[in-house]
Amino acid sequence: MFLFQGVIQGQEFTCPVDENSQCLDGYYGDPEDCTLYHECVDCQYTTGQCESGLHFDKDVHICRSPYLAGCDPDNYIRNGTAFCVTRGNGRVDGPINPLIFSEAYVNYKYPYDPLMGHWRAGLSGVYFFHMSAGAYPGRKVNMTLAGTPHPFYVVRDSQYHELDVISRDAMMVLNMHSVLAVTLEGDSSISSDAGKQTMWAGFNLDEFMTDVVAFYAVSTQLQQAPTTVVFEDEHFDVGDGYHPTTGLFTAPVSGTYFFTFSSGAESYATHRSQFVSSASPAGLSELWRGAGQNTGVDTLSKSLVYVLNAGQTIEVRLLAGDASNGQSTLLSFGGFLYSPKPPTPQRAWFVNTASTHTGPLDPVGFENEVVDVGDVFDQTTNSVTIDTSGYYYMSLYTGMTSDSLVSIQIVEQSEGHDPAILAEVVRSEPYNTEVDTLGRSLLVHLKAGSQVNIRLGQDSVSYSNSDKQTTFSGFLLYAIEDPDLSGSL
After folding, report:
1. 486 class by beta-carbon count within 10 Å (0-12 exposed, 13-18 middle, 19+ buried)
2. Which residues, 6 or more positions from 298, have their beta carbon under 8 angstroms from its beta carbon?
3. Whole-model pTM?
4. Which end of the chain has fewer beta carbons closer than 10 Å to its terminal beta carbon, N or C?
């Protein structure tokens, strides 16, 4: 769509030709004026002008924001990295390359281009990404992050399911101007609605953290319980904390850390794993997949925030069943030190529950407060109180019992506004025969004075016991009052 004021007379422009002097018809930007463009037909041109405030983008041939058009270097500031984009428009079938995300929670300095479907690295350094997908009933999911130095997939091969959510995190080192896109493979279908089940988010640690201590490793081996899962293929290790021969991460400095783990679950196979730290005699949280109706390799994942002193360790321990690579590098372990650059204050939390809840319930209670940096989690209201406006990264995981449904939501409450659903974890299949864990994450801008809590839907069951399957964690990434460059796509 062209947004122009009218045809401009008297502009001098020469339409391009090929090596055989044949005219190249099309739209071209003006070499001197970013607000002008020229339409060439048979080497004759007509000059148009964009609406006030817009520039012509020579790559996609439309008038758009100067920040996205890339014509004027003084306005081309796509050097940001933080983004969170989603879809809310029903079913999509593969193959699609790229998958277009039509809505933005965060698009700081426009690293994500909704017209091209591409994300561009505004800086070199260590990156963190999260992808989630709503698995359409009875269909497979194979979502790929293309352009990465190592393969990254979110997979659900099982087809005996209703609407379901799968997710996964990944970390990698990228050069400035690296271009990534999400693709949906053939014989795949995804779904998204008001619960924003399909989402892609990420940020650069070098941009937002004072001290970058981070690692990411994968395994190509099928591992069987009981064992500490060893991720022998170390993709990077800034700070020398990870040990690929033992599977342990040893904190090089004291502080608050974020950790993430993913695994593949083979057909009809059990999986039960937990985060274990030398700082605690008990496991921190468990990830379960029962040997029920899964008829193919599925992606499992979990993340948390935890405080370690220098020298203390954390590992992933496989308690039962298998941990599988699934031919898609699904078996991975990563993490980073949470050290936001001033003036962003440290705000982080990790809470869990050992109780099973039945909906409707608002809010869901979390009686175990494991991490609360900045005193943000209020156990009397079971909510996170936002005292600093900014970009917050949050993760919600829940256990699911056999023969039950799950609809559990991250909800924002703010004075003068109706509660807003930020993200939903859902499984609409009452015939699973075992306990499963499912969850997802998001990055969103929140205003000071608002609160965030967890809400359980009608007839839903959120299962948890002493193994703490149901958890809620998060942190403030970047303090910003009015994100002018965030907004809608």
Report:
1. buried
2. 155, 156, 157, 158, 166, 264, 265, 289
3. 0.87
4. N
DSSP labels for 72-90?
STTT-------EEEE--S-
The rounded mean pLDDT for the chain is 88
| Count of domains forming the chain | 2
Going from the C-alpha of 435 to that of each of 276, 382, 406, the distances in angstroms are 20, 25, 12
Token pair recorded at residue 288: 């379960």
pLDDT digits (tens, 9 = 90+) for 264-303: 877 777 888 999 999 987 888 988 887 665 666 788 899 9
pLDDT tens readout for residues 422-453: 999 988 765 556 778 889 999 999 999 999 99
Residue 465 lies in a domain: yes
What is the widest separation between alpha-carbon atoms in the chain? 79
8 A C-beta contact, residue 238 and residue 212: yes
Partners of 378 in the β-ladder: 383
Q: Which of 34, 50, 69 is the last residue of a domain?
A: 69
Q: Rounded to the nearest 5°, which phi and psi values hold at 4?
A: -125, 160
Single out the residue in 54, 69, 84 at which a domain terminates: 69
44-50 β-sheet, strand order: 4-8, 44-50, 36-41, 26-29
pLDDT band at 110 (very low <50, low <70, confident <90, very high): confident
Domain interval for residue 57: 4-69
pLDDT at 70: 74
CATH number for the domain including 27? 2.170.140
| Distance from C-alpha of 284 to C-alpha of 274, rounded to nearest angstrom | 7
310-327: b or e for each residue (b if 16 or more CB lie within 10 Å)? eebbbbbbbbebbbbbbe
Q: What confidence tens digit (pLDDT) does each residue in 298-330 have?
A: 888 999 999 999 999 999 999 988 887 765 667
